[in-house]
Amino acid sequence: MRKCFSCKATVAVAFVASLFSGPLFCHGQVVGTFEHNLSSSVGATWEGPGIPTSEFVSAGATDGTSSLAIHHPTGWNIEAILKGGLPLAQDAASHDFMLIDATTTDNGVANDGWSPSWRQLFPVFNSNQGGWQQSQIDIPVAGDDGGSLTSTVILDLNQVAPNSNGMTMKANAQAYVDSGGGNGTYWELFLAMQGGDQGTPVKAGDYSDNSVVNAADYVAWRQSLGGTTLANETVSPGTVDAADYAEWRSHFGKDYSQITTIFDNIRFANAGAGSGALSSGAVPEPSSLVLVMAIGLVISVCRPVRS
Questions:
Q1: What is the tens place of the pLDDT at every residue in 22-34?
Q2: Are 221 and 266 members of one domain?
Q3: For residue 144, what is the domain's CATH number?
């Protein structure tokens, strides 16, 4: 079932928009809710190199109770793909923006010297009609505070992407729609990403000190059993014992060379009345009382539309 929302431009909508420093978006078409599944509204399932090792987590969940945490290398890599074909192209052709809620998390404790350092997202529309249309978006990252930071990043589909024959992404999508799609054609959305973390995380279980917890670490533990020294020891310091073995088992398969970026609520949208200047940062929240009043005004003009 496709999840849409429609708003009529009225004074009430303009009033609500004035409460925020960021834009108000209407006519949203969600293509990735990641609500404990990888399905989409365009009839395709999210796939790609980063999907098999990804996890559904609660951090950064803005549409439902779960989001998708992708563990990926620090260098540029395509991690998620939506091969949506004609329905995906129709969404891009009928909207002006693609919005993604992106989250990074400080997995340590506050002021421990480790936290996300930087993240970049590269949305790519790839099709036989328009070729490779790649854009770059910088994602704000969480600080060294033991918490997380969620921001809505915005891709303007009316911009001309590199290698797009001088056409906007929206125009390229419309050209594909006009062609009718069909056998032998394709329209895909790729999510490539890169980034880094600052500081050195504690690599629990990585006794061979190669950033991956695997069989080599068991060998290192076995050879050191009964001794006093073990690389990256996090339990029973100074004594190599069964507790260290249990720690290795609990972290088996962990790859400390990778970083994590969390995504939720990937959708296409148009700007509503009174949206003002576009911003890719987090949108501040009004006070609870004002928000309740605003919602009361908007209920009469915003209604869900299912298709």
A1: 557 775 899 999 9
A2: no
A3: 2.60.120.260
Indicate whether 274 pLDDT > 50. no
Kindly state whether residues 182 and 231 are assigned to the same domain. Answer: no
Q: Is residue 24 located within the same domain as residue 93?
A: yes
Whether residues 116 and 245 share a domain: the answer is no
If DSSP states are collapsed to H, E and C, what string results for the chain? CCEEEEECCCHHHHHHHCCCCCCCEEEEEEEECCCCCCECCCCCECECCCCCCCEEECCCCCCCCCEEEEEECCCCEEEEEECCHHHHHHHHHCCCEEEEEEEEECCCCCCCCCEEEEEEEEEEEEECCCEEEECCEEECCCCCCCCEEEEEEEEECCCECCCCCCCEHHHHHHHHHHHCCCCCCCEEEEEEEEEEEECCCCCCCCCCCCCECCHHHHHHHHHHCCCCCCCCCCCCCCCCCHHHHHHHHHCCCCECCCEEEEEEEEEEEEECCCCCCCCCCCCCCCCHHHHHHHHHHHCCCEEEEEC
Q: Do 179 and 232 fall within a single domain?
A: no
| pTM for the predicted model, two decimal places | 0.77
286 with 153, same domain: the answer is yes
Q: What is the pLDDT of residue 201?
A: 73
